[in-house]
Write a structure and sequence with these properties.
With 255 residues, this protein is of the alpha+beta class. 58% of the residues lie in helices and 11% in strands. It has 11 helices and 4 strands. The protein has a 4-stranded mixed β-sheet.
């Protein structure tokens, strides 16, 4: 928590300072080579493949690292490449925590959030800002290098989605299954434990349930449980719709 607080406090200052710099300033070739390899938008697809190849490269007899869950789409590809690099460096938990810190900082700082979304900001300025922020927050090299690539290619605006996909991968790696329970009001601790225990019995050994509560007054009452690509809808809203359909169906008295 202390690191997250220090990280959030440094973000606005770094961004404001860099945004006031001359936007036409260029990094030296040495600085560029130290931060990340040459990378242009036209090379983006090849970078993802190269990241997988480089991060999964291992000494002889060392098993190849694979993602525990297949991911698709741009965010999924980035998350998968980051997972392989972090697993290779044995920093999965640290990288996950750092990404979540960054997302939390963007949610609490309008200036930083706008900075990450604004494609008008030159790539050099984005890279310099992210580099300084990562250095001040003492982020790992894996996280820093990854964020630099996102900054260099205008993909920082997708970091929240990438972070979620990365968390899905780390949870799968730990044998955790996320279950989302939606209710009108928060479940009492006793009922939450009972639900968690029930889901744990369904999943069996080898898996751990991570319960996440979601509040949605529109369901009117009851609950909706989502886990392992299954949905158990026991909400009053759904029951009311089912009853409405039943009452609207014509009655065949000749049957």
């Amino acid at each position: 928590m202390a690191m997250a607080g220090r990280f959030r406090s440094s973000v606005p200052r770094v961004v404001n300072s860099l945004m006031s710099d001359s936007l036409s300033a260029h990094r030296s070739a040495v600085e560029r080579s130290l931060i990340c390899p040459n990378f242009t938008d036209s090379q983006e697809s090849s970078f993802l493949q190269q990241s997988r190849n480089l991060s999964s490269a291992s000494p002889p007899k060392e098993p190849k690292i694979k993602v525990p869950v297949a991911m698709f789409g741009g965010s999924g590809n980035y998350a998968s490449a980051l997972y392989i690099a972090a697993a290779k460096a044995k920093t999965l938990d640290k990288v996950e925590s750092e990404l979540l810190d960054l997302v939390a900082a963007s949610e609490k700082s309008p200036t930083f959030s706008q900075f990450m979304k604004d494609l008008a900001v030159p790539a050099d300025t984005r890279v310099k800002a992210i580099t300084e922020i990562c250095d001040q927050a003492k982020f790992s090299e894996v996280t820093k290098n990854f964020l630099v690539v996102l900054a260099d290619n205008g993909r920082l605006r997708h970091v929240d989605t990438i972070a979620k996909r990365f968390s899905d991968l780390t949870m799968a790696h730990r044998g955790e299954i996320k279950a989302i329970v939606t209710t009108v009001i928060p479940l009492p601790a006793e009922e939450e434990k009972e639900l968690k225990d029930t889901l744990q019995e369904i999943l069996g050994k080898g898996k751990t349930v991570k319960l996440e509560q979601k509040i949605d007054p529109s369901i009117l009452g009851g609950l909706v449980v989502e886990f392992s690509q299954k949905v158990f809808d026991m909400s009053i809203k759904t029951r009311a719709k089912q009853m409405e359909r039943f009452l609207r169906d014509p009655i065949n008295f000749d049957a």
